[in-house]
Amino acid sequence: MRMQKNVIALTVAAMAASVSLAASAETLTIATVNNGDMVRMQKLSGEFTKANPDIDLEWVTLEENALRQKVTTDIATKGGQFDIMTIGTYEVPIWAKQGWLLELDGLPDDYDTDDILPGIRGGLSMDDKLFAAPFYGESSMVMYRKDLMEKAGMEMPEDPTWEFIGKAARAMTDKDAGTYGVCLRGKAGWGENMAFLTATANSFGARWFDMDWKAQFDTQQWADTLNFYVDLMNDAGPPGASSNGFNENLTLFQNGQCGMWIDATVAASFVTNPDDSKVADQVGFALAPDNGLGKRGNWLWAWSLAIPAGTEKAESAKKFVAWATSKQYLELVASNEGWANVPPGTRKSLYENPEYQKVPFAAMTLKSIEAADPTNPTVDEVPYVGVQFVAIPEFQGIATSVGQQFAAALAGQVSVEDALKSAQALTTRAMSKAGYPK
Amino acid sequence: MARQVTLNRRLINTGVAWAFGILIFFPIFWTILTSFKTEAEAISLSPSLFDFDWTLENYQEVNSRSNYPRYFMNSVIIAVGSTLLGLIIAVPAAWSMAFVPSKKTRGILLWMLSTKMLPPVGVLIPIYLIFRDWGMLDSRTGLVIVLTMVNLPIIVWMLFTYFREIPGEILEAARMDGAGLKSEILYVLTPMALPGIASTLLLNVILAWNEAFWTLVLTTTKAAPLTQFIASYSSPEGLFYAKLSAASTMAIAPVLILGWFSQKQLVRGLTFGAVK
């Protein structure tokens, strides 16, 4: 009887303890973008909650554009719905300047901030202070078919020029067989054709604005960029290229219809996966092309975890951000899913790891990331931060309108000259409305 | 000969109607089919109609990654709640405009409809701020209120149109027999307008079920409905077409089944008065 009483007392005590533990647990709401690496983080986050039983995690996983709209509305109005947000290198400098993000100071000693790749760290910092921790980073590079290149009697150098890409693309094209030398983004949008074309324009010496924030689409460099792109796509691109974005080109490449594809380094794991790609064993990698001017046509992007300034759970949020972007997390992914699935592009130590060096696209991803400098993106000096974008709030709207003009030029609806004239006029108008030109 | 012509015409009409129906339904059919394919087959440039390795792995993945019942219950509560609240407001409003019209009635009706022409994003920030200050962000109550407001013009317009079709003489006769306002609405008007009210109800459940802008912006986790469930499987970078299709199929299935079983009621209600 006495024993029974003890058991009951113990059970009640245990229940009370668990209730009080549950009551004291802090719930972090995390907004994240839906891609393979982030979904994997969500799956592995049980390890974090196991080590931190006083913290619960709630996930809001959304498509990139929906997420961007949602977190922007929330942070701009101090809605306080999120404790951690996944944002890109475009948002970080703008939001940090507005005072919307917490500075990521006081991270654990073993976090090793100096291990973060300098280009990525620069893109996520303001006045040398880190405002978001990179979860994965990417650049762009050339993915090409070794067999088609060989058939064309050419050899891809590690650091091709645009002239070589043009020649190779035309040589690889066999329209009757449905093989096109090069697949490039053509779909209008600031994150679609304009990401590619802005990065390409950098290698042609073009820039969006001069130091007085005056639009530069009336320069020879932009004319050269757009003429080269339209001519190349007309000669060696797939039909209907003005509707093609990342996913469309990925499908074309995986189906063996592209000789080359210049796009995000994250695509390397998709095109080399034999489950998804018909050409998995024939893919080679090279740096994005240059024009001999000292700049390559590759971009720089990082999906990063940031903490909104209004959160009341800053300490727990910092704990999670430090866990998800740490060296230990990379090892956790590697032990669960192999080194090829580790989030790339953020830490020097990952690329020094002999196991990771065996991943076929690892070295080229690092070289591509290192070739991009968000504070010095093109040949001439610029007043903005960003390689394939300009980190000002107005850029999304302006670049999407410019992208529509360039997509129309690619589709043959307007001439290159007219598209550039329209781009110059609409950018000048929007920037003077926003009060930029001095 | 005349019978032959009529038969031919009927056959042609039936054929055209079926062809049109299949064309309209094809995207949904294709989504359902894609949900049973592997990701590689889903993005294939030469997709096969039925000759592929059928798999349930997308449904398993979606179920393991998301709490579908929670999204589903939120959708049901938000759609049904906003429709019922809308009807409570709209029935008296439509009754008064149909049977006791004033000089301003037409203007009010047109003004109500004009609010549907405003892009929702134009009022996003003020509504978000109100929700934030009233603690209604990520709450089902908040969404019920917003979706009621969003769909109210359509509910009022539909009910107004149905009520107008009811002959005023019947209501007058009821009044002469001593029916008061309550009895008139409950025992005379409502039974006659029932098909119209039912189709309004069904249509609004569907509209609220499918509403994506406000449900995506104003909810995060607790009140998130199926629209957010779908959005979590859409991705601009990567291969998620088959999983997205599985999530879409799971989201549209309830409303598709509802539409299938109530199609007679819907058609009857939507064409109510059209033959007069």
From TrEMBL, chain B:
Coiled coil: none
Example GO BP: transmembrane transport
Residues in ABC transmembrane type-1 domain copies: 72-262
Subcellular locations according to the entry: Cell membrane
Transmembrane segments: 12-33, 71-96, 108-131, 143-164, 185-209, 240-261
UniProt xrefs under InterPro entries: BP-dep_ABC_trans_perm, MetI-like, MetI-like_sf
UniProt cross-references to SUPFAM superfamilies, sorted A to Z: MetI-like
GO cellular component: plasma membrane
Bilayer topology annotation: Multi-pass membrane protein
Keywords linked to the UniProt accession: Cell membrane, Membrane, Transmembrane, Transmembrane helix, Transport
Highest rank taxon of the organism: Bacteria
Keyword field contains Ubl conjugation: no
Family label: Belongs to the binding-protein-dependent transport system permease family. MalFG subfamily.
The protein's name in its UniProt record: Inner membrane ABC transporter permease protein YcjP
Native source species: Granulosicoccus antarcticus IMCC3135
